[in-house]
Design brief:
The complex is a heterotrimer. By secondary structure, chain A is mainly alpha-helical. Chain A has eleven helices and two strands, in the order H-H-H-H-E-H-H-H-H-E-H-H-H. The chains are: A mainly alpha, B alpha/beta, C mainly alpha. The B-C interface holds B 36-40, 171, 198-201, 203, 205-206, 208-210, 212-213, 216, 228-229, 232-233, 236, 240-242, 259, 262-265 and C 1, 4-5, 8-9, 11-12, 15, 111, 115-120, 123, 130, 132, 137, 139, 208, 212-214, 216, 218, 222, 253-258, 262-263, 265-266.
Chain lengths: 279, 377, 293
């Protein structure tokens, strides 16, 4: 019996990991969305985190905790560096500039032979496990819930509802925007590193436009009222291709159709209740 | 009396069990790209596997009468799905051997997992460097570019007197970049001068900038590492820009497709490609395969089909030699197995790559069809 | 070589401009990131391909067929999906999300029906003569694209500026509620704009598919990212901007590849995009519009 259970787990291990990783990615999008900005740069930050984390363990032979640190700090540094000019941008412009930066980083990675170039990095040692993944995810969810209920959370919601009014009321808009960007980058980078060390291979084409829209869909499907929303969206969208496997050729079509129907009937996402606040 | 009854019942049970055993199919696993933009590589493999299995089973199957069956999993060209597929095949379906996956990128992710579980895996279309280095359970029947391209370029130098070339390659695809690395090495070893190296994206459709530059340098030939989509665009635009017929295009394995002429038309004439196999190979085994494939699927097979077909026969032989499907025995059997297939004689090197490179031919495109270079039909 | 490279750049630029015209219209007037635009591009090409094979139409007739088919499908998508969301006053992001789902559905549908292999129009579908003028080679289809880009841009600009319909469109783009108050039928205008941008996308698909002999279901995806760059650099919603930015980008890309390094060619678009956003976010011709979230 134990054998069958452990076999079952081994069989679906990758999916189980994927749900957690995508959950963390969804939260990284949530950070930016919850202050009212559109986010399309997560895939690029994920890629940077994945690459620097993997280089740390594969090429430099450093221990895993160092890799994790690298995968959090490097994207954060990048976010800080590009943060200043992008702060003045709003909405669609911010999103597209993130897209552009994502493409630039993808192209740079492609031409960086030390990191494998087009052939990617293979032979990444297996590090971390399901407990680490879900542990991180749960800690993050709890942290977000606490933040959401605090004054910070109220400020964020104010920014989301009406930026001008929030500014007038004394919310330091640029600082929050930058902070959100940096935190989002750190989370995405972390997700990238964790994921890389569980799939032994990464390539520069895994972090492009398509992936960015997929990550965005996690949050949009689940709703951004609470941090549980994006995680729920991520879970559903990660499991969907596996569940729909039997549809063969039509699988992606049905996937798309499901997204369309879900949004049409639940435009605010699945879990759209707003968090109760104690303050 | 009772003993006799027990004996009869026992015998009956044993023979029923034996009869069951005899019919029980040998179930193998296969991961191929069956949907999505790269399914043109996975579907021919699937078709060829099915064709081979049909023939093998009709001739009595393996292990004294057991048919072979394949459980297919679609990776859709997605690394994660390929990994899920591998885990399902091994963990849930308990297959003793896996064929595929289609793409080298997928193999880099899937290979280590399968290797860890000590199940043999055979790449029939993965030609990048470092595949078999993943581990002792990873085999490859696809002839890597490092075996084919040197033959192509050597022929160009010796038969066409090519002394200086321009090289173009798609720098964002593992397969084309790998092939380019081989080209670069080979050109250096042959002492052929590389006037310039130009890059483009695998998905690009405009190559006029790079081609204009190339034309101006007056090379003897232009060496291209690209998939057939971009490759045919390069040929077309090159001729449109006025690159003369005396400047040949020489391609890596990506050019090895009838699509080249379909898209590029006349511009494809004179293109040279090295190939481990080609459609009109005259030997009996190949001709029979081509005929059966065409009558079953209505299309000519391509090299992905040919490689898959041979691989299936190889696996069948290995199963018979191993006397069963116990993975360790299968692995040793594979290491030693030989076969004469549509690609010619085959065996594995110690590193589990194809050992025999005598089947490599240099093809030239003329009038929409490939033919052996140097042969006038 | 310089002249040839300049011509190469102008032709490439024309393809970018053609693609961007409909895109900037959709984006600038309807105000939503509509990712389905790439699908209309592919649909137009496939419709024309089918028309040329099944009914034997030549390019002059198949082109409008492709455009009209794409335009109609654009209207259908808009009606079924986006209008509903607009009416429910759903957050803008839902529209984006819905277009993501719709795009996935349509692309996959197209590849299920047609397969993912690259196709081309028959060689005799369009004039294919090549000319050599003053040491520069150009093919008839390339000249066709450049002319088409200029003509379409010109026609569109004239419609938007010089006709009542154009006035209505501009009104709705600027302020839908005020326009409604002035008696403009907002829904009709939206449908009209959807149709026009879809048709433009489809026409671009036919011409570009013809020029590069590369028609496959995902052809629009590859253009989308460059499309973003062009419309931002040119200014959201500005047709002149799309035209000029398109040509500019094409020329700069070709010159970069020809004289600097071909590996940098792809970087150009995105570097310029990011630069524009940081230095002058409204683009070459954009007006500093009222802030839209």
């Amino acid at each position: 019996m134990l054998d069958t259970l452990s076999d079952l787990y081994w069989t679906y291990q990758n999916v189980i990991h994927g749900v957690a990783v995508n959950g963390i990615l969804a939260l990284s999008v949530y950070v930016v969305l919850s202050i009212g900005q559109l986010a399309l740069g997560q895939a690029a930050f994920m890629g940077i985190g994945a690459y620097f984390g993997a280089i740390a363990t594969t090429k430099l032979g450093l221990p895993f905790p160092v890799a994790i640190l690298a995968s959090i700090l490097t994207p954060a540094a990048v976010a800080l560096a590009i943060g200043a000019p992008t702060l003045r941008l709003t909405g669609v412009y911010l999103a597209i500039s993130m897209l552009g930066l994502g493409e630039i980083s993808r192209l740079l990675l492609l031409n960086w032979d030390y990191a494998g170039g087009a052939l990617g990095l293979s032979g990444i040692p297996e590090r971390g496990d399901v407990y680490l993944l879900y542990g991180v995810l749960i800690v993050l969810i709890i942290a977000f819930i606490f933040v959401g209920r605090s004054r910070l959370g109220r400020a964020m919601e104010a920014m989301r509802e009406d930026e001008t009014a929030a500014g007038v009321m004394g919310v330091n808009i640029p600082r929050y925007k930058l902070a959100a960007l940096v935190v989002s980058a750190m989370l995405a980078g972390l997700a990238g590193c964790l994921s890389a060390h569980l799939s032994s291979f990464i390539g520069p084409n895994e972090y492009g436009f398509e992936e960015a829209t997929t990550i965005l869909s996690f949050a949009l499907l689940g709703g951004i009222g609470t941090p549980l929303g994006p995680v729920a969206g991520a879970t559903i969208l990660t499991l969907l291709p596996e569940v729909l496997r039997f549809l063969a050729d039509y699988r992606l079509m049905i996937n798309g159709a499901i997204i369309v129907i879900a949004i049409l009937f639940m435009p605010r996402g699945l879990l759209s209740w707003r968090m109760k606040r104690t303050v | 009396m009772r003993i006799a009854l027990v004996g009869v019942i026992a015998a009956a049970l044993i023979s029923v069990a034996a009869a069951q055993d005899n019919k029980e199919p040998v179930k193998l696993g296969a991961i191929e790209v069956l949907t999505g933009p790269n399914n043109r590589y996975g579907i021919p493999a699937q078709r060829a596997f099915d064709l081979a299995i049909e023939e093998i089973n009709k001739a009595g199957g393996v292990l004294g009468g057991r048919p072979i069956a394949i459980a297919y999993e679609d990776s859709a060209g997605n690394k994660d799905q390929a990994m899920n597929a591998a885990r399902k095949l091994i963990g849930r379906d308990k297959v003793p051997l896996i064929l595929g996956p289609t793409l080298s990128n997928e193999m880099f992710a899937v290979g280590p997992v399968v290797n860890d579980r000590k199940i043999p895996i055979i790449g029939t279309s993965t030609t990048a460097n470092g595949i078999t280095a993943i581990g002792p359970w990873v085999f490859r029947t696809a002839m890597p570019e490092s075996d084919v391209i040197p033959v192509t370029l050597k022929t160009a130098k010796e038969k066409l007197g090519v002394k200086k070339v321009v090289v173009m390659y798609a720098n964002d695809d593992a397969f084309t970049k790998s092939a380019y690395d081989v080209m670069k090495d080979t050109l250096a070893k042959l002492g052929v001068e590389t006037l310039a190296t130009e890059t483009f994206s695998d998905k690009d459709t405009d190559f006029t900038a790079q081609l204009t530059k190339a034309k101006n340098l007056n090379p003897d030939a232009i060496v291209v590492s690209a998939h057939v989509d971009s490759g045919s665009g390069i040929l077309l635009q090159g001729r449109q820009l006025g690159i003369g017929k005396n400047v040949r295009f020489i391609g890596g394995n990506g050019f090895n497709s009838p699509k080249l002429a379909e898209i590029a038309g006349e511009a494809a004439d004179g293109t040279l490609v090295g190939s481990p196999w080609f459609l009109a190979k005259k030997d009996d085994v190949n001709q029979k395969f081509v005929k059966s494939y065409k009558s079953k699927y209505g299309e000519d097979p391509d090299q992905f089909a040919a490689q898959a077909y041979d691989s299936m026969y190889l696996v069948a032989r290995a199963i018979n030699a191993a006397g069963g499907t116990e993975p360790e025995k299968l692995r040793s059997a594979l290491q030693k197995v030989t076969n004469v297939g549509v690609m010619g004689p085959f065996s594995f090197t110690e590193g589990r790559d194809p050992a025999d490179t005598s089947g490599v031919v240099i093809l030239e495109m003329q009038g929409g069809k490939f033919r052996i270079f140097g042969e006038t039909s | 070589m310089l002249q040839q490279q300049l011509v190469n750049g102008v032709v490439l630029g024309a393809t970018y401009a053609l693609f961007a015209l409909g895109f900037t219209m959709m984006f600038g007037v309807l105000g939503v990131i509509n990712l389905t635009y790439g699908v209309y591009f592919a649909l137009g090409a496939f419709a024309a391909l089918w028309a040329s094979k099944a009914i034997g139409l030549s390019v002059w007739l198949a082109l409008p067929v492709g455009a009209i088919v794409a335009g109609c499908i654009a209207v259908i998508v808009d009606t079924l999906l986006l209008t509903r969301l607009r009416r429910a006053k759903a957050p803008e992001l839902s529209s984006l999300m819905v277009t993501i789902g719709a795009t996935l559905f349509l692309y996959t549908g197209l590849s299920v029906i047609y397969g993912t292999e690259v196709r081309r129009f028959a060689p005799d579908f369009a004039p294919s003569a090549a000319f050599e003028i003053a040491g520069v080679r150009i093919v008839a289809t390339q000249a066709l694209i450049v002319v088409a880009a200029l003509l379409m841009a010109g026609a569109l600009i004239w419609i938007v500026r010089g006709t009542k319909v154009g006035l209505a469109v501009r009104g709705v783009a600027e302020n839908p509620d005020a326009a409604a108050l002035m008696g403009v039928n907002g829904a009709l205008v939206t449908h009209l704009v959807s149709f026009m941008s879809g048709a433009l996308g489809g026409a671009a698909g036919v011409l570009i598919g013809l020029n590069f002999n590369a028609i496959q279901p995902f052809m629009g995806e590859n253009m989308m990212l460059r499309g973003f760059a062009v419309i931002i650099i040119g200014g959201l919603g500005d047709l002149r901007g799309a035209l000029i930015a398109g040509f500019l980008l094409g020329i700069i890309e070709v010159l970069t590849a020809g004289y600097f390094a071909s590996a940098a060619k792809d970087l150009v678009a995105f570097a310029l995009l990011v630069l524009t956003l940081w230095v002058r976010p409204v683009g070459l011709f954009g007006r500093a519009a009222a802030k839209r979230a």
